[in-house]
Specification:
The chain is α+β, with helices and mostly antiparallel strands. It is built from 5 helices and 8 strands. Strand 3 and strand 4 form a beta hairpin. The longest helix is centred in the first third of the chain and has 18 residues.
Length: about 180
């Protein structure tokens, strides 16, 4: 039996549908997290850890009322990655995160499109007045996306579990975006 969490909004952009996670999305998550491409998020990971991470993503909707959206191709609904508001208990501040699972989606602007839509939703719907993104020092693609979104680098953040150090990237606030600063 598959149960869907009620109340997760769907946001559509020119090429994407940002929606809640589904069990059918797990193979895309698993394959990404098992690959060397997952190094920017601490991987590669086993299927067991990938399943736990997917559960964390899904449970965040229940516990916080928001989470990462699945970035799905608007035409086919194929899962390409995720982006959205994120605030695990040990994070220093609310985050806008993103990850592309499908290597064919890299370099196409889809991460930017999804992250912009997710950030706008966090500011407009959740009422956030600020947001950060935590980005590994070894992840130049995410750093470039953060710059493109108008973020500025700040201090480092060392994860509680002894994991890697990430840099805090500060997003422009909603008032800056309303004035056209992107």
């Amino acid at each position: 039996m598959t149960v869907r969490i009620e109340g997760i909004p769907v946001i559509e952009t020119a090429r994407l549908r940002l929606r809640g996670p589904r069990a059918a999305d797990f193979p895309a998550v698993r394959d990404f997290l098992a690959s060397e491409r997952a190094a920017g998020v601490g991987g590669p990971y086993s299927t067991h850890v990938a399943w736990r991470a997917f559960g964390h993503l899904t449970g965040h909707w229940v516990l916080r009322g928001y989470s990462m959206f699945i970035l799905a191709d608007r035409a086919s609904d194929r899962p390409l990655g995720m982006s959205g508001p994120w605030f695990p208990e040990t994070w220093p501040e609310p985050e806008i995160g993103w990850t592309l699972w499908d290597p064919a989606a890299e370099g196409t602007g889809l991460a930017f499109e999804g992250a912009q839509a997710a950030r706008a939703w966090a500011y407009e719907t959740l009422g956030w007045t600020t947001a950060i993104s935590l980005i590994s020092e070894d992840n130049p693609r995410s750093q470039a996306l953060a710059r493109r979104m108008g973020c500025t680098p700040e201090a480092g953040f060392h994860r509680f579990d002894g994991g890697e150090t990430a840099r805090i990237w500060r997003h422009p606030g909603p008032n800056s975006l309303a004035r056209g600063a992107q």
